[in-house]
Every structure is written in structure tokens, then in C-alpha cells.
Specification:
With about 400 residues, the protein is an alpha+beta fold. About 45% of the residues lie in helices and about 15% in strands. Strands 1-2-3-9-6-4 form a six-stranded mixed beta sheet, sandwiched between helices. Strands 5-13-10 form a three-stranded antiparallel beta sheet. Helix 10 packs antiparallel against helix 11 and helix 12 crosses helix 14.
Length: about 400
Amino acid sequence: MSLAAVPTTTVDPFSPEVLADPLPFQERLREAGPVVYLTSHGVHAFGRHEQVHAALTNWQGLQSGAGVGLSNFRLEKPWRPPSLLLESDPPRHDAPRRVLSAVLGPRVLRSLRERWSADAEALVDEVLAGPDEFDAVPALAEAFPLRVFPDAVGLGPDGRENLLPYGNHLFNAFGPANALVEAGRPRAPELGARVAGQCAREALSGDGFGAAVWAAADRGEITPEQAPLVVRSLLSAGIDTTVHGLAAVLHAFATHPAQWRRLRERPQLARVAFDEAVRWQSPVQTFFRTATRDVEIGGTVIPDGGKVLMFLGAANRDPRRWADPDAFDLGRDPSGHVGFGMGLHQCVGQHVARLEAEALLTALAARVASIRQVGDGERQLNNTLRAWASIPVRVHRA
């Protein structure tokens, strides 16, 4: 299929209107065809699950190393040193991925389960000691990851307030240089320097994820220059996405009382609930890739050096892949969603996020008979993330 035959749209998916409510645009994108050309940014876009999955798993033909945002690192200098995991391909990607996969392995997570469950119970008890109505985003979705994850990495108590603003700008910067990026640009150098400082060996405790990364450098598995960048990957990808994933599942339950009752009856569904919420809300909405050669996908040839935009959120609601995709349903098997990516670059910390969600939801289900959203809430606009700034809820204690 030639470019002339590819459906086109003039809609800017990074406009405030689409970012605030992406679902109508994503439906039009899926129905237009397997590949659509976005004239607003000069890129090909995939909205269907089949093509998004194919693009995510084809690292040889669609590289991450030229940037997973709109910026093309072949032509432009990145604003920060690229991520060794997210923005690299084999062989450069291999050793850092292997190290981080071991650091976040099943044995390590099993050792954290009891501690994080106790932390979740303590946080929920603190929240429930207050009024019946509260904002679930700062009280739970932000508070829990910021309570447990920096400790697990080995960060000190100071500077944690920089993690969310840094991550917010990082994910905005994957999009075009619009007002969202400009708003974060003045603080970006300062935030980048502060977060980088927290990745140094001397800034970390001796018993966390960060120390384990540096120990791998001592063993020669990665270089000393790579170690702080691997730790930075933990901080930049392990906070914001989990916060917004937790916000997504809290919003889901606060608007689906029958599903909350289902969780209370079967708390072991907590992980399924989190994955279903990630599918349903897709906290990470989009990522880019760059063609390493002429690549055919969905009957269209993407030219060498061309950027493609994968709509993970659209793929996760594709009726070709999911029955009743707009429903949040704990009876569904959500495996196969692309909310954590797919293939070689699939999120290495996804099991950490699942463990945090399991701990928090289990603690809530034991203590809260019902949770209802009161009011519309407020979205936090971001070029890459589908995020909540505020979810007002009312709870009835069990």
C-alpha cells in the first residue's frame, strides 16, 4: 500500500482535547485502518492490537535506540543521556536488561511481599482514620509507591519530592514540544541533576536495588558508567507508571461497585484487577519507534528512518482482540494487553508494580466495604501518560 492509499488524519493526538479524552479519537484511528498517517507530526500510527503488538516485538526493524518519543536521535541530540533499557537495542540493551531482571527477580520480590503488605495495611489504616471522603490520588496512588519503592531502591529520605515532577517531564518529552513540555522545561536540568545524584553509589543504602546494580558493575556485568543510568531507569520508570496504574485501578473500582464486591469476595483477584485496569485505562498511552529499513506492517511500508507511533491505549480496547473492551471486568483474562509493552523492551519492573498493587488492594478490600467516586475527578494531562490529578472518593468501612 503506497502512502497515497494510507488513511490520513489531521487530528493532533497530543492536543489538550484528545489527551483529556483519547477514547473517541482512538476508536476513529482503529476503524480508519491498520495503519494511519498523522499529518500533524508526519508519522505513521497503529491503533489496532495486531499492528501494535507486531511493532513492539519487531526490535530489529523498528528500533528503540533512535528514541521512543517523537524526537529522532539519529538527527537530534537527546535532552538527557538515553535510557540503557528503554532507548537502546541489542547488543547495548542486553547487559543492563540482564542485570535489572536479576535485581528485580522473583526471589527478591518474595522477600518484599510481607513488608509491603504491612506498609499497605498501615497506610490504609492511616487514611481510614480520617474523613470518609478523600482524594485517592495523593492519599493512596501516590503515597504508597513513594512510601515503599524508594526505600527498596535504597534512596535516602531527602529528594523524593523530585521523583514525580521529573517523571512527569520525562514522559511529556516523548511527545512534541508543546505547552506541556515547555511548562516543564525550566526545571528539567535541575530535576535531572537531582535524580542523577540519587543514583550515585554513595547516595544509596547498601541493601537496596541500587546497591545490587552497583554490585553488578563491580562484578563486571555492566560498566561503572552504566550503573547510575540503570538505577535511573528504576526511578524514572518505576514511580510514575505505578502511581497512575494504581490511580487507574482505584478509579475503576470507585466507578464499578459490583467489581469491588467481587474483589472483596475473592481478594486473590487483586493482580487480575490491576492488569485489567492497566488494559482498560492504559496509563502508558503511546510510544514511538523508528524504522531501521523499509518495514512492512499492516500492508504499508514504513520508510527507513520513519517514525511510527503505537497507541497502546487504543490496542488495549481493540474489539478485534477483546470482547466488550470498554468494560472493566474481573472475569476477563487481561493477559496479552500491551500496557507494559511487549517483547524485548517489555517493562522489566511490571512485577514490582503488580506486587505494590496486590498489597494495596488487599489491604483496602479487607477494610473497605464500598468505595465510590464522588464527582468527575481531574485528569493530569501528559503527552504519554493517561493520568489522574484527583479522584475524590467516599468509602464505607468494613
